[in-house]
Amino acid sequence: MHFLLTLAIVVLIFLNGATDASNAIAASVSSGALRMRQAALLSAVCNTAGGIIGGIYLDGIAKSVIESADFGTRGETGVLAALASSVIFTFCAWIFCLPTSESHALLAAAAGASVILGESISPARVLLPAVCWMTLCTVFGFLSGIAFGRFFPHTLKPRTVCRLQIFCAAAAAFLHGAQDLVKFTALLYAAGGKPHPFLLPAAAAMMGLGTLCGGRRMTEAVGDGLASLDSRTALATDLASAASLAVLSLLGIPASTTHTRTASAAGGALVSQDCCLHSGSFFRFAAAWILTFPVCAALSALLCKLLVLFCEIY
């Protein structure tokens, strides 16, 4: 069981790098401010720093994740089912270039496992917090994108815009690490174990490897597929998503880089006269977000039943 649990965590973190972590650097790569390998290395370094700082100071996020799951006396079974269902869903989303959030896939999967393994747990009680968090970070990111989209003047020099974009990409990657790596650590606590001291650096390195190996397709899907952004609007949406993630993190809310960044880009493109929001892609992404909860919860519940049955037989 320990081997399967470790394998599931490694695979999910790798996929997180190919999907979720890629969103933080999408605009800087599509605008030419950074090359893909440069952005992936920057993402790995900042995710490591964010994970360490987040593990020390953002305990509210870990507490929210732990309180949203109840695996009874079968902690390892619940976490394994949640991780496995998140891996399956995330891989399918990557195949179809859909920028889904591993954070909310994991929370939904943990809720599905809690319904099976917990005592007197209702689906509404465990799913409602995750739905509220997803909605909050999406709305917050969208409104921030609109606000920051009107902020930057057209007189900014291209070099200044490029430097600011790199800074915003680093900030978004830092906050992604602070959010997501803390959630993985929290799940290990929920399983009844303690994370190894080298877990955060190793996880961040695996995340960077995932971004290098498979992040390009998701970077292109989010950077170019959602909206046609000029460099000024791309900077505004990057700053909006980084600011939104910072506020949500300080409030101890488990946020999603994917939802926040994509909603910020949609809001910025909506108010910009020089940009175009691709409504078809936006509604396709939104449909994938909505399906994340029922699909991951149901899949996790099914895997829980199979794992319990397997343990009883063997």
Account of the protein in words:
- With 314 residues, the chain is mainly α.
- Helices cover 81% and strands 1% of the residues.
- It contains 12 helices and 2 strands.
- Helix 1 (2-18) runs parallel beside helix 5, helix 2 (20-30) runs parallel beside helix 11 and helix 5 (75-95) runs antiparallel to helix 6 (102-117).
- The longest helix is centred in the C-terminal third of the chain and has 35 residues, at 279-313.
- The two termini are 13 Å apart.
- The model has no long low-confidence stretch (mean pLDDT 79).
**Rg over C-alpha atoms, rounded to the nearest angstrom:** 19 Å
Report how far apart the termini are.
13 Å
Number of helical elements: 12
Q: What structural class results from the helix and strand content?
A: mainly alpha
Number of strands: 2
Order of helices and strands: HHHHHHHHHEHHEH
Spatial order of strands in the largest sheet:
1-2
Give the helix proportion (percent range): over 70%
Unreliable segments of 5+ consecutive residues: none
Describe the largest sheet.
2 strands, antiparallel
- Overall 3D geometry? globular
Averaged pLDDT: 79
> In percent terms, what proportion of residues is strand?
under 5%
